[in-house]
Amino acid sequence: MQIQSKALPQSSFLRRAIRSLTAAGESSAETAHPLLVVSAVALFTIFIIVEVDLHSAQLQALGLLGHGIGIDPVFLSP
Fold this sequence. Notes:
The protein is mostly helical. It has helices at residues 7-28, 34-54, 56-62.
């Protein structure tokens, strides 16, 4: 007597469902305007800079941000 796995029919059903979703997404996908992408990246960068500036004391306490002391002069070259 041979035991058949129930995972095979389920996996083929999942594969068909995923394939139909990706095919539907590819046919209706449009590309974003390059200026929109550049604007979004610039705004995101400014947002990150402002957030780091606002939370610099907390980041220094965690050790994720330098303390502003700089490099020890002993390690600098002459």
